[in-house]
Design brief:
The complex is a heterodimer of chains A (about 550) and B (about 300).
Chain A (H helix, E strand, L loop, with lengths): L2 H6 L2 H27 L10 H9 L8 H36 L1 H4 L8 H18 L3 H12 L4 H25 L3 H8 L4 H35 L7 H10 L3 H30 L19 H21 L9 H14 L7 H34 L14 H19 L2 H11 L4 H26 L3 H8 L4 H31 L10 H11 L3 H29 L1
Helix pairs in contact in A: 2-15, 3-17, 4-8, 4-10, 4-12, 4-13, 6-8, 7-8, 7-14, 8-10, 9-10, 10-12, 11-12, 12-16, 15-18, 15-20, 15-21, 15-22, 16-18, 17-18, 18-20, 19-20, 20-22, 21-22
Chain B lengths: L1 H20 L10 E6 L5 H6 L2 H11 L2 E4 L5 H9 L5 E4 L1 H10 L4 E6 L7 E6 L21 E3 L5 H14 L11 E2 L3 H10 L4 E5 H9 L8 E6 L7 E4 L3 H5 L3 H10 L6 H9 L5 E3 L6 H9 L5
Parallel strand pairs in B: 1-2, 1-3, 6-7, 6-8
Antiparallel strand pairs in B: 3-10, 4-10, 4-11, 5-8, 5-9
Helix pairs in contact in B: 4-5
């Protein structure tokens, strides 16, 4: 088998076969997960009353003056954590991204040498480790080193997000692997110079726009981090959650919904304008604007920039705490406590828990995928798919708004809260965890899918429409194949995320690594925790590879 | 786009400069006594109404006192270990864990009711578990699903588990693995919901929720109250005397003991802790809890 014979094959056909194999693999994975979770004794119908009393409290949030003041203060704290965490992650992403970029390692003329390929691969693998650990676990480790310090939340968000950002930024850099890069290289510039002055200027705009997306994710993470005592809305939510004061909980949940809503709006506006700075599609402004100037983008950058020192001041961050004598002592204590790693209940149970974790994440995405896809179409703003002159009815506009609000609520309520609510109506095990993560991820997925719907190029569909092809056939032959790939890629991406998130839904009972982590944390069994985290890393990195393979075949 | 990028880099640089020039003043010489409490019952009330307690202690001790709320049992222990909390209201188990992690730390005070503390076992009425009066009766939980409260709770996990052991009921005899609901209130609600047939919790929380008529008694009932055990106490960092002056330990205990229910503010403080009064205590009182915790692997 040589390269030339492979080339001779009809490429589209081969890719299509790939897709069918992958579809089969996914189907098998879902069926296997269902059998693992079991199908008998899943639903507990007696608990619906308890569940509804939580949602009934939504119309009566506690609006007493004191609580509102707390909610306002803590909202600022949550935003500050999210913002500074994101800035840190962009810093890490910028540097990490350069070293992870293929163009940093690939030779410009000759073939890859084994050492170079190994260097590139191992850098990528190394950079995958920080993102395989959930923010809450980072927070837990950091609190042992830094104590009760606002840096804990900032770094707990910054490290894993930085690792994700580095990966994404390296892809941006490689995508703009352009003439100026090549010209600089041929002209004798080093790889680093060529990347910095050739590819970076173009890729940095993309990085910034991506940074706004991470800010939106960081708000949600900051809320979950409250659980470990990092302050902010999540912390207050946790206090009210412990005594199950639903009315108080809703006050903080509404604050979270508002913050997430604003962050989502800001992030998607920035990204839409960054993608097409001059078109102004949504606003319908007919005036041609000068390229390179978009007031909204400048305004966004200025506000984000100004908010950074304000957040710094609000949190009262003190850099000297990062390397104080106490920090050094506590860090060496933690290292001593955590190594050598031991396996608390034997490799068998660690393996079982890892397998349960994978099954839980597969089911979570399986549960979320179809509803999310349906709702994505409801909320997507398809301005150019619509015929000119068709006005949008008030009813459909209202439906879209309500659906957006509904999805916002799904993703603003932290997964540990969903897990507990699910436990009212399902018996403990894999299912309630999967459903809780599914509900939360449906909220995130629908939003990402809606953006795909908004941005895809519908020229094929319109051509068919012009030829008089009926709508169903148009969707089957033009729209669906195009979108299915992108949607599946989003599903795979959320599957990886869901694996990490299983650590925060340990409350659902005897299933998965989340339960193991919980028990080891309360025993201060850090040797054992190390092995559990290694297991989690292996599972996450394996998932990352599988999902990368699938996404390649979908491209 | 170009302007946009330039602007951003300028702002980022500015920020970094501002950060570098930020005040680096250490707080090693702080004279603030930072106190905390495990989030055992109504942590929201305590966390949001701590002024009374800090004012009272500040006045009695002549130092500034700060309350730092905590959302999880284990993070209270961790923050005691890192030295962020000087004085913590712990449960029996977390107190022992904290003292093991901080050599020289001492139990300072407990409530009048803590020497006589009980846990309650509750069960669904339709589960077939009938009320019983002796520890041996716990064997009737066999083949039923069951939930504890928080993993680190003394009254919601450690002591009930120890009584189950005494009765000869192993956790493997239960139907499925035991759950950990996360708090006493969550235990009640999950048993009411029918997710678990039975559960166990702190008697104070159970009595308080009964009095407030917040429990659906058509679904659950109390089936057993355990014999008395020792539970909550406050634990203080070593070397306080050096930081706050000689005899600080004695003054701290005296301050707790002086809490007077006839003073309305102090009565509210006692109410937060559900205490009639506070009494001094010492480490040896918790040897039993320590050995039980060792037996069940909760401390290494």
């Amino acid at each position: 088998m040589t390269i030339s014979t492979t080339r001779a094959l009809p490429v589209p056909l081969r890719r299509r076969r790939d897709r069918w194999i992958w579809a089969l693999v996914v189907l098998m994975a879902v069926l296997w997960s269902i059998s693992r979770a079991g199908v008998s004794d899943v639903l507990n119908q007696r608990g619906f009353g308890q569940l509804s009393s939580f949602f009934r409290a939504a119309i009566q949030p506690d609006l007493s003056g004191d609580l509102l003041r707390i909610a306002l203060d803590e909202s600022i704290t949550t935003v500050s954590y999210a913002l500074l965490g994101t800035v840190l992650s962009i810093g890490i992403g910028l540097i990490g991204g350069i070293f992870m970029a293929e163009s940093m390692w690939s030779p410009i003329t000759r073939r890859w040498s084994p050492t170079r390929r190994f260097g590139w691969r191992s850098t990528r693998a190394l950079m995958a480790i920080p993102r395989s650990i959930h923010e809450v676990v980072w927070g837990l480790l950091l609190i042992n080193v830094l104590g009760n310090d606002p840096w804990v939340a900032v770094i707990a968000i910054g490290i894993p997000f930085g690792s994700v950002t580095a990966k994404v930024f390296s892809e941006f850099l490689d995508e703009v692997h352009n003439d100026s890069y090549k010209a600089l290289r041929i002209g004798g510039a080093s790889r680093l110079q060529a990347l910095l002055f050739g590819s970076m200027p173009e890729a940095s705009g993309d990085l910034l726009s991506y940074g706004f997306y991470r800010l939106e994710c960081a708000i949600r993470s900051a809320a979950v981090l409250g659980v470990i005592g990092a302050g902010g809305l999540g912390f207050q939510l946790q206090l009210s959650f412990t005594s199950l004061d639903y009315n108080e909980m809703w006050t903080f949940l509404y604050a979270l919904i508002i913050l997430s809503g604003l962050a989502d709006w800001w992030s998607s506006s920035v990204r839409r304008r960054h993608a097409s700075p001059n078109s102004q599609v949504a606003e319908g402004a007919g005036v041609a604007r000068q390229p390179g100037r978009d007031r909204f983008l400048s305004w966004s950058a200025i506000s984000a920039g100004l908010a950074v020192p304000i957040s710094w001041w609000w949190l009262d961050l003190s850099p000297s705490n990062l390397w104080s004598a106490r920090t050094q002592r506590l860090f060496s204590d933690l290292v001593t406590d955590s190594f050598p790693a031991t396996v608390t209940n034997g490799f068998g149970s660690l393996f079982t828990a890892s397998v349960d974790t994978v099954a839980m994440a597969v089911l979570a995405i399986a549960v979320a995928f179809l509803p999310a896809t349906g709702l994505a179409f409801v909320i997507a703003r398809r301005s150019h798919g619509r015929q000119a002159g068709t006005s949008v009815s008030l009813a459909s506009e209202g439906a879209r708004f309500l659906t957006r609000l509904f999805l916002l609520t799904l993703r603003a309520i932290p997964p540990p809260v969903w897990a507990f609510l699910t436990l009212f109506v399902m018996f403990p095990g894999i299912w309630p965890g999967a459903v809780a993560l599914g509900i939360y991820n449906a909220g995130v997925m629908a939003r990402l899918q809606a953006e795909v719907v908004e941005n895809y190029d519908d020229s094929k569909g319109r051509a068919l429409e012009a030829a008089g092809v009926p709508r169903v056939s148009r969707i089957a032959y033009a729209t669906a194949p195009q979108l299915a790939g992108r949607f599946s890629a989003i599903g795979m991406y959320r599957w990886e995320v869901a694996i990490r998130e299983t650590v925060v839904v340990g409350v659902v009972g005897a299933a998965g690594l989340g339960r193991v982590v919980d028990e080891q944390v309360v025993r201060f069994d850090y040797d054992g925790l190390t092995s559990t985290l290694i297991a989690l890393m292996i599972v996450t990195i394996a998932a990352d590879q599988i999902s990368a393979g699938l996404r390649r075949s979908l491209r | 786009m170009k302007n946009f990028r330039r602007l951003v880099f300028a702002l980022l640089t500015l920020t970094l400069l501002a950060a570098a020039c930020g005040d680096d003043g250490g707080d090693s010489a702080s004279q603030t006594l930072t106190i905390g409490a495990i989030p055992d019952q109504d942590p929201d009330l305590l966390a949001r109404n701590y002024d009374l307690l800090t004012d009272f202690l500040g006045e009695q001790l002549g130092v500034s006192v700060e309350y730092s709320p905590v959302a999880e049992y284990d993070s209270a222990v961790t923050q005691f270990k890192t030295g962020d909390l000087d004085l913590v209201w712990f449960g029996g188990l977390t107190g022992v864990q904290a003292r093991l992690q901080v050599p020289g730390a001492e139990a300072v005070a407990q409530r009048d009711i803590d020497a006589e503390f009980h846990s309650v076992f509750i069960a669904r009425i339709d589960s077939g578990i009938e009320p019983f009066t002796s520890v041996e009766g716990l064997t009737s939980l066999a083949d039923h699903s069951f939930t504890f409260g928080s993993e680190s709770s003394t009254s919601g996990r450690l002591m009930p588990q120890s009584f189950m052991d005494q009765s000869g009921l192993s956790l493997d005899d239960l139907s499925g693995d035991p759950g950990f609901s996360g708090s006493h209130d969550k235990t009640i609600q999950l048993v009411v919901a029918g997710t678990y047939d039975a559960g166990t919790l702190n008697e104070q929380v159970w009595d308080a929720r009964l009095a407030a008529e917040e429990v659906d008694l058509t679904q659950v009932r109390e089936v057993f109250r355990t014999p008395p055990t020792l539970d909550y106490h406050s634990v203080a960092q070593p070397a306080r005397d050096a930081r706050f002056g000689d005899g600080f330990q004695a003054r701290l205990i005296a301050a707790f003991e002086s809490l007077d229910p006839s003073d309305p503010d102090q009565a509210t403080i006692l109410e937060f802790f559900s205490a009639g009064s506070f009494i001094g205590t010492d480490n040896s009182n918790y040897d039993q809890i320590e050995s039980v915790a060792r037996d069940s692997g909760l401390i290494g």
